[in-house]
């Protein structure tokens, strides 16, 4: 008996969207329920009403996803527990949020920026106290989290919630418009993807169509798992043979006639694919697009798109890109650490992870059965080639040096130098290296190492 009594949450969601949802949409939220739930029979987490606050930092996690995957299922199992999302203004920094709020649970990608705030509770003691089985977690997910603090007490700052993999989104309407065959279920090389892109990059009736977007240097470098800084010295690590490959391939993309719009637009993003619908193919994170595409669908905006395996360099076929780890943590200042950890354990149970799989996120636990249910309950993925999510092996995300968040802007500048200013690859690398190393010297003073 998989879904019973989902009406309460659906009424709430309908009220928020201002419209009536279809029967297919009714499977979106497996949360609140008057008699049972996906997380098991009702019981209490403690005896008193309890509200836990939840903050999302640096990761895409829509309100619908929060209700579907977190708040609804937990309240269904623990009726006395409510999880409320902290939603700051868009331009508020994580440091500003954490200086004025004490979120009990933090959803993030465990960036070094957050590590520096001291916000993360070391979960080692709670893991032992609650007898949480760490062996159930995928090594690609848990090893990255443990790598963050390796050599600094080996603390555990987070548990992985989902593995955010890369896929290739493509707009079938654009392929149809120009009579080009769709990508297949076979992984392409970047050269093959560029051949397609050249056929799809053109201007027609005032619309600038772009064949392929790879999220610039930082996106394309994830094909090879490349660090930005040397782990030991902290100096720029982009003057290497592999980084040269990335710069050269991106330069080829920028040089496709028509890629740079007449108004100078070069940094094409998610909104261009989803809203303007002028991007034929976009290599991107799974979680970066699925939730927002579902929200767009609920607003009545739909178009004909699908997914294919993300391309890679010819000698890397069989691998995809770095897997970003979205994680759940406990605030070191929380007054409800035990209760918050019990919530984390529920989210990482088989049933908790089944909910996220069926709603379009790759689970962080070892359970191949869940892959067969991927996307089953989120309407926007119905009829899509969801099996392509699992073609190719993702690689573990590179170690993020503490200064990496601050210097990544230099890679964006290097991309712009090649796209707009006509800089050659060697000059772009040299200029970026010098800028990064200057930044590092400043950061050693302001942040310390």
Automatic annotation (TrEMBL):
Transmembrane segments: none annotated. Pfam families: SBP_bac_1. InterPro entries: Bact_solute-bd_prot1, SBP. PANTHER family: ARABINOSE-BINDING PROTEIN-RELATED, DIACETYLCHITOBIOSE BINDING PROTEIN DASA. This is ABC transporter substrate-binding protein. It comes from Paenibacillus shunpengii.
């Amino acid at each position: 008996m998989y879904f019973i009594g989902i009406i309460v949450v659906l009424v709430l969601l309908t009220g928020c969207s201002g419209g009536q949802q279809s029967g297919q949409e009714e499977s979106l939220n497996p949360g609140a329920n008057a008699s049972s739930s996906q997380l098991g029979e009702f019981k209490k987490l403690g005896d008193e009403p309890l509200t836990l606050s939840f903050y999302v930092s640096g990761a895409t996690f829509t309100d619908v996803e929060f209700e579907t995957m977190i708040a609804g299922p937990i309240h269904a199992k623990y009726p006395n527990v409510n999880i409320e999302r902290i939603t700051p203004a868009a331009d508020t920094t994580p440091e500003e949020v954490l200086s004025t709020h004490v979120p009990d649970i933090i959803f993030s990608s465990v960036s070094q920026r957050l590590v520096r705030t001291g916000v993360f509770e070391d979960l080692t003691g709670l893991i032992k106290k609650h007898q949480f089985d760490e062996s159930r977690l995928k090594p690609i997910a848990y090893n990255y989290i443990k790598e963050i603090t390796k050599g600094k007490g080996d603390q555990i700052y987070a548990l992985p919630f989902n593995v955010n993999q890369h896929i290739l989104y493509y707009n079938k309407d654009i392929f149809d418009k120009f009579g080009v065959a769709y990508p297949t279920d076979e992984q392409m090389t970047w050269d093959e993807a560029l051949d397609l892109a050249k056929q799809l990059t053109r201007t027609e009736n005032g619309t600038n169509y772009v064949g392929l977007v790879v999220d610039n240097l930082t996106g394309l470098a994830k094909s090879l798992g490349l660090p930005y800084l040397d782990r030991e010295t902290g100096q720029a690590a982009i003057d290497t043979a592999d980084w040269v490959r990335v710069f050269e391939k991106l330069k080829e993309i920028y040089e496709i006639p028509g890629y740079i719009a007449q108004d100078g637009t070069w940094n094409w993003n998610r909104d261009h694919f989803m809203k303007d619908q002028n991007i034929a193919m976009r290599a991107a994170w799974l979680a970066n697009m699925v939730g927002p595409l579902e929200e767009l669908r609920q607003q009545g905006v739909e178009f004909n798109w699908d997914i294919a395996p993300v391309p890679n360099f010819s000698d890397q076929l069989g691998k995809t890109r770095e897997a970003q780890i979205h994680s759940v943590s406990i605030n070191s200042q929380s007054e409800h650490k035990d209760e918050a950890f019990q919530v984390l354990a529920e989210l990482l149970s088989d049933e908790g992870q089944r909910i996220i799989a069926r709603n379009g996120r790759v689970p962080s636990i070892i359970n191949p059965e869940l892959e067969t249910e991927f996307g089953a309950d989120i309407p926007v993925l119905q009829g899509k080639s969801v099996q392509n999510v699992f073609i190719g092996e993702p690689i573990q995300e590179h170690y993020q040096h503490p200064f990496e968040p601050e210097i990544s802007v230099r890679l964006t500048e290097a991309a712009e130098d090649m796209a707009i200013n006509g800089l050659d690859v060697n000059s772009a690398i040299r200029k970026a290296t010098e800028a990064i190393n200057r930044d590092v010297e400043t950061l050693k003073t302001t942040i310390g190492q």
